[in-house]
C-alpha cells in the first residue's frame, strides 16, 4: 500500500498527511464486517478490475458463542472507541451486560436474555410464565428463574408484570414495604380516583400515615425503561471468532476473522490486460484504466492490512484475558488501549478503531471487544491489580456464600477482599453492591429471618 497504508496509524508523534486513501483506510479499519461488505460491494460495482474469489466455508471448529440480539449500532467514519463508549447504552445492552456479570452460564441466563426481548416500552413483561414457557420450549420453573434473574437487574422494577409489582419491587429495595403499603398497592385504582377515605379504611392507617405512604409510591419510577432508548433490535454477528486449542496443539486459543461475513476480493489483472490492449494508444483511456487498476490494487492490499491489524488486536486481547475465558468473570484482567497497543507495537488510536463496535464470538458468549477494557483496582502485598468487573464478581460470590442469618457487612467484604489480595475502599464495595442490586446486610438479614 506504500505510503498510504493503514500501518501509518501506528506512528506516534509524527504528523501524517491525511490523503483520501489514508482516510478511507482508517474508516475501513473501524467498519464492522457487515459495513465493510457493503462498502466493498459498492467498490466492485464501480471498478471492473475487482473480482470475488470462490468462497470457502467458515471453519466448523470455531465456537461463535451464544448468539445475541441487540441494538444495532454501527460505526460512523472517524468515531473513536472513546466516543462509542460515551454513547448511552440501550436498555438491552444495559441488561445483557448485567446478565453476563451476575447470572452464571446456564438456563437462567439464556432465558433471562430471551425475556429481555419480551419487555414492552415501559419495561414490563405482561405475558404469563405459562405462555412464555410454551413460547421458549422450557418449563414454567425455568421461566420463573429467568424472570427472577431479570428482575434482579438495574433499573429496579424491570421485568415486572404490572404497575403494582413494579412499585413493590422498588419499595422493597428501599425497605419501605409494610402491610399497609402492600394493601395500598393492591388498591391503586382507589388512589387514581383520589378516594382517600376509602384508602384510609382499607389500609388501616390515619391520614398522616396514608399521606407518607402515597409520597413513597409517587417517588418510584412507574416506567423503569423510560430512561433508555428503544432502538429496534437487529442480529449481531461476530466479526472475530475464537476457540480453545487442544493439548495436541499446545493449548491456548485460536483467533480468526469470521469468514462468513468478511468480504474478499481479487485483483483481476487478466481482464485489465485485455482491456488495456484494446485501448491502444488513447492517453485518456489508458489513464482511466491505470487509475482503476491502482484503485483495485490498493483496496486488495488495504483489506489484507485491515485483517492483519484486527487479528493482531483480537489476539492480544484474548491472550491477556485468558483467565477470563478459562475461569470466568472473576478473572477478568484490567486492560487498557495502551496495554494492547504496547503488546502489538501499534498506536492507541489504531486499537481504538479496531475495537469500535466489533464483536467476538467466544466460548463464554458473543461479546463486544470493548467489554474487555476496564480500569484496574490495586492489589495488596504486590499482588497484580484487578479489573473492576472481576471485583464485582468477587463481591457477588462472597455474598452468595455468606450465612443468610449473619450476612457480611460492606466492611467485612473489604476485609475478605483484602485477604484475597484485592484492595478496595468501603465506598467502592457499596457502589458495586448497589450495581449488582444486592441489598444491605441489614436488609439481607431481615429477609432471611422473614423467610425462616
Structural class: alpha+beta
* Neighbour order of strands in the largest sheet: 5-4-7-8
**Poorly predicted ranges:** 1-15, 57-86, 376-384
Shape: elongated
Mean pLDDT: 79
- Count of helical stretches: 21
Rg: 28 Å
Estimate what percentage of residues fall within beta strands.
Answer: 5-15%
The figure for the number of domains is 4
Count of extended strands: 10
The share of residues in helices is 40-55%
How far the N terminus sits from the C terminus, by CA atoms, comes to 71 Å
Major sheet attributes: 4 strands, mixed
Question: How would you characterize this protein structure?
Answer:
With 452 residues, the chain is an alpha+beta fold. It folds into 4 domains: 208 residues, no CATH class; 69 residues, Arc Repressor Mutant, subunit A; 56 residues; 76 residues, Homeodomain-like (Arc Repressor Mutant, subunit A), CATH 1.10.10.60. The protein has 21 helices and 10 strands. The chain has a 4-stranded mixed β-sheet, with helices on one face. The protein starts with 19 loop residues before the first helix and ends with a helix. The relative contact order is 0.13.
Amino acid at each position: 500500500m506504500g505510503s498510504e497504508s493503514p500501518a501509518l496509524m501506528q506512528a506516534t508523534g509524527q504528523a501524517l498527511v491525511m490523503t483520501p486513501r489514508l482516510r478511507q483506510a482508517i474508516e475501513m479499519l473501524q467498519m464492522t464486517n457487515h459495513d465493510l461488505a457493503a462498502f466493498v460491494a459498492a467498490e466492485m460495482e464501480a471498478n471492473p478490475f475487482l473480482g470475488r474469489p470462490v468462497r470457502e466455508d467458515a471453519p466448523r471448529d470455531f465456537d461463535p458463542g451464544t448468539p445475541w440480539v441487540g441494538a444495532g449500532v454501527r460505526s460512523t467514519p472517524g468515531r473513536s472507541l472513546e466516543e462509542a463508549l460515551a454513547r448511552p447504552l440501550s436498555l438491552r445492552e444495559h441488561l445483557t451486560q448485567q446478565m453476563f456479570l451476575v447470572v452464571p452460564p446456564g438456563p437462567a441466563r439464556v432465558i433471562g436474555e430471551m425475556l429481555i426481548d419480551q419487555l414492552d416500552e415501559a419495561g414490563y413483561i405482561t405475558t404469563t410464565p405459562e405462555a412464555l414457557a410454551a413460547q421458549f420450549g422450557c418449563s414454567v420453573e425455568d421461566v420463573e428463574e429467568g424472570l427472577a434473574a431479570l428482575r434482579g437487574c438495574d433499573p429496579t422494577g424491570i421485568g415486572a408484570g404490572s404497575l403494582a409489582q413494579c412499585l413493590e419491587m422498588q419499595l422493597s429495595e428501599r425497605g419501605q414495604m409494610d402491610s399497609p403499603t402492600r394493601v395500598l398497592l393492591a388498591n391503586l385504582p382507589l388512589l387514581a380516583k383520589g378516594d382517600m377515605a376509602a384508602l384510609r379504611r382499607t389500609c388501616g392507617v390515619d391520614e398522616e400515615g396514608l399521606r407518607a405512604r402515597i409520597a413513597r409510591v409517587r417517588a418510584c419510577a412507574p416506567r423503569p425503561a423510560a430512561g433508555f432508548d428503544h432502538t429496534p433490535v437487529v442480529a449481531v454477528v461476530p466479526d472475530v471468532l475464537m476457540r480453545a486449542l487442544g493439548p495436541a496443539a499446545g493449548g491456548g486459543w485460536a483467533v480468526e476473522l469470521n469468514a462468513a461475513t468478511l468480504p474478499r476480493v481479487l485483483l483481476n489483472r487478466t481482464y485489465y490486460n485485455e482491456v488495456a490492449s484494446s485501448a491502444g494508444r488513447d492517453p485518456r483511456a489508458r489513464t482511466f484504466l491505470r487509475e482503476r487498476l491502482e484503485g483495485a490494487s490498493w483496496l486488495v492490499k488495504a483489506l489484507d492490512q485491515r485483517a492483519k491489524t484486527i487479528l493482531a488486536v483480537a489476539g492480544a486481547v484474548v491472550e491477556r484475558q485468558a483467565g477470563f475465558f478459562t475461569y470466568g468473570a472473576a478473572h477478568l484482567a484490567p486492560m487498557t488501549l495502551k496495554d494492547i497497543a504496547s503488546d502489538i507495537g501499534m498506536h492507541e488510536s489504531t486499537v481504538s478503531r479496531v475495537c469500535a463496535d466489533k464483536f467476538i464470538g467466544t466460548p463464554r458468549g458473543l461479546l463486544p471487544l470493548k467489554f474487555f477494557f476496564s480500569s484496574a483496582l490495586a492489589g495488596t502485598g504486590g499482588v497484580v491489580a484487578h479489573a473492576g468487573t472481576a471485583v464485582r464478581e468477587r463481591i457477588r460470590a462472597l455474598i452468595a456464600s455468606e450465612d443468610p442469618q449473619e450476612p457480611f457487612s460492606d466492611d467485612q467484604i473489604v476485609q475478605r477482599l483484602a485477604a484475597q489480595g484485592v484492595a478496595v475502599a468501603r465506598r467502592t464495595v457499596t457502589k458495586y453492591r448497589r450495581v449488582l442490586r444486592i441489598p444491605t446486610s441489614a436488609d439481607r438479614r431481615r429477609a432471611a429471618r422473614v423467610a425462616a
